[in-house]
């Protein structure tokens, strides 16, 4: 049989369910990646994310080449063009079956159903495997058969149902001596042909973030991901104690790799379980805490799958649609530029701009500052993150924003507003992180770093955090009435 693996957000050879199944089931094997830059733009996927994805793809193509498995590339505009294109390709390449790993955002699910329909007409089956999450969304239900809306019971149910070590990673496909004949390129209806090279730019994306093979300092690909996982395994025991301090490199920084699929969540869980006698709770506090974060990722993806309205720019709590958001574009711009005059917020926003990543504690701090102190719609912040994060992931980002804005399920209660100055003192006590990213404040000494006196070149605070906190609490309290 001739199999085609359709790669999407699973850009790796090892532990790739679809690829593994295709390699086992088919004598002849090729892979394809279809870029849809117009849809990606509609989904607010920014230059950092797309550059990193394409860099990972380029590396994977090389690795597959070494194993004599061709990886084709096709650039279309939108998801809606995929079903017809894949059908043409399957016909021209005489494909018997298509293998892919399931994706869960709404438009991706619709695309995948349309592809299945379109290929059914030519009798080519498509198999979508569970791979992006540890267990299939929809498989963890409450006693009454509903999806969990609250994290802690979800986590408990996850551990009791799936808490063993059944997360043994799958091997990479072997090198193929005889892999049949695959043409170097084929003509496909539309502006672009199917080729075997990954281009340096896409319509609307320059992929310019790339310097010296890295994207904003991130080394792309599966090997870099495996190295990072290995390095992190040395310090994972200290994770619980140190993960909240942005000046310390104590978290895994695997999120860009997880989201492009250069590493799987199973490989991550497997590493942690191996170091914790296969236990999800108990044992090393650091490891149990980190496994808990993988479950948070799982939770938000399952939630998005169960509540499609989350993919339609809707808050989880409908009444929060009535929050009187301020619409202050100038304030929003100052927030994006890291010029709010609140040092910890500005340092965080500049970390995002310069590295395409932000520490989790600071994601909570800047999201709270934007939505509560500046009373700006969480969707503005969500969009800015999608556009600028190298690890942008719809489910986790939407979940994080709705958590911070108190519009989500199991969100922070609206009356508990983070004070950015207290957060700064607590989690960046010496101001090391602030000084790293806000050079204007390098000369400020001692505790003044958190709330500096007038400093040349540095703005005065954009708002009074106490007054704006009160304003936000009142705005949310009124929704009840
Ligand atoms: P680690 O601390 O090492 O955790 C390991 C992995 O667990 C992460 O890589 C991630 O996959 C998962 N994880 C950890 N925390 C969370 C969480 N709160 N929710 C879901 N998964 C989690 N994460 C993204 O991957 N993409 C996003 O676009 C994203 N946007 C966010 C927006 C906001 C407002 C907030 C508050 C959080 C967001 N997060 C997002 C979650 C979290 O901040 C990042 O996953 C984490 O900072 C990534 O760094 P790390 O890999 O070192 O994490």
UniProtKB/TrEMBL annotation:
Q: Which InterPro entries match?
A: Crypto/Photolyase_FAD-like_sf, Crypto/Photolyase_N_sf, Cryptochr/Photolyase_FAD-bd, Cryptochrome/DNA_photolyase_1, DNA_photolyase_1_CS_C, DNA_photolyase_N, Rossmann-like_a/b/a_fold
Respond yes or no to whether keyword Flavoprotein is given for this record. Answer: yes
Against SUPFAM superfamilies, the record matches this protein to: Cryptochrome/photolyase FAD-binding domain, Cryptochrome/photolyase, N-terminal domain
Q: What class of enzyme is it?
A: lyase
Enzymatic reactions: cyclobutadipyrimidine (in DNA) = 2 pyrimidine residues (in DNA)
Annotated FAD binding lies at 239, 251-255, 290, 293-300, 391-393
| Role according to the record | Involved in repair of UV radiation-induced DNA damage. Catalyzes the light-dependent monomerization (300-600 nm) of cyclobutyl pyrimidine dimers (in cis-syn configuration), which are formed between adjacent bases on the same DNA strand upon exposure to ultraviolet radiation.
Query: What is stated as this protein's family in its record?
Result: Belongs to the DNA photolyase family.
Q: What is this protein called?
A: Deoxyribodipyrimidine photo-lyase
Species of the source? Microbulbifer yueqingensis
């Amino acid at each position: 049989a001739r199999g085609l693996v359709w790669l999407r957000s699973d850009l790796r050879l090892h532990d790739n369910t679809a690829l593994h199944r295709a390699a086992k089931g088919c004598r002849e094997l090729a892979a394809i990646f279809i870029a849809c830059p117009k849809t990606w733009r509609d989904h607010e996927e920014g230059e950092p994310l797309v550059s990193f994805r394409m860099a990972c793809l380029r590396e994977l193509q090389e690795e597959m080449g070494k194993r004599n498995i061709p990886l084709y590339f096709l650039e279309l505009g939108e998801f809606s063009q995929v079903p017809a294109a894949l059908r043409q390709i399957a016909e021209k390449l005489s494909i018997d079956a298509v293998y892919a790993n399931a994706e869960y955002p709404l438009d991706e699910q619709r695309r995948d159903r349309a592809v299945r329909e379109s290929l059914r007409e030519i009798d080519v089956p498509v198999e979508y495997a569970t791979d992006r999450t540890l267990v299939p969304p929809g498989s963890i239900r409450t006693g009454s058969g509903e999806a969990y809306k609250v994290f802690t019971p979800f986590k408990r149910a996850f551990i009791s149902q799936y808490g063993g070590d059944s997360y043994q990673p799958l091997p990479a496909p072997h090198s193929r001596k005889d892999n049949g004949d695959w043409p170097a390129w084929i003509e496909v209806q539309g502006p672009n042909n199917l080729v075997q090279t990954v281009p340096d730019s896409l319509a609307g994306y320059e992929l310019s973030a790339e310097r010296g093979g890295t994207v904003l300092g991130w080394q792309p690909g599966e090997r870099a991901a495996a190295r990072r996982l290995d390095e992190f395994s040395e310090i994972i025991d200290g994770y619980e104690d140190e993960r909240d301090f942005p000046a310390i490199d104590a978290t895994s920084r695997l999120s860009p790799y997880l989201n492009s699929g250069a590493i799987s969540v199973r490989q991550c869980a497997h590493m942690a379980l191996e170091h914790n006698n296969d236990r999800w709770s108990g044992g090393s506090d650091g490891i149990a805490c980190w496994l808990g974060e993988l479950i948070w990722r799982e939770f938000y993806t399952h939630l998005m799958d169960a509540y499609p309205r989350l993919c339609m720019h809707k808050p989880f709590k409908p009444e929060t649609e009535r929050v009187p958001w301020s619409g202050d574009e100038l304030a929003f711009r100052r927030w994006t530029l890291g010029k709010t005059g609140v040092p910890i917020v500005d340092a965080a926003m500049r970390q995002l701009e310069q590295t395409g990543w932000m520490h989790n504690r600071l994601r909570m701090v800047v999201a709270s500052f934007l939505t509560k102190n500046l009373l700006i719609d969480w969707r503005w912040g969500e969009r800015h993150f999608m556009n600028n994060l190298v690890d942008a992931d719809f489910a986790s980002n939407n979940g994080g924003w709705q958590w911070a804005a108190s519009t989500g399920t199991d969100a922070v209660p609206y009356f508990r507003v983070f004070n950015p100055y207290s957060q700064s003192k607590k989690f960046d006590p010496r101001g090391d992180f602030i000084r790293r990213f806000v050079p204007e404040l390098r000369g400020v000494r001692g505790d003044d770093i958190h709330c500096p006196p007038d400093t040349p070149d540095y703005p005065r605070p954009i708002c009074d955090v106490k007054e704006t906190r009160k304003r936000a609490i009142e705005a949310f309290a009124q929704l009840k009435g």
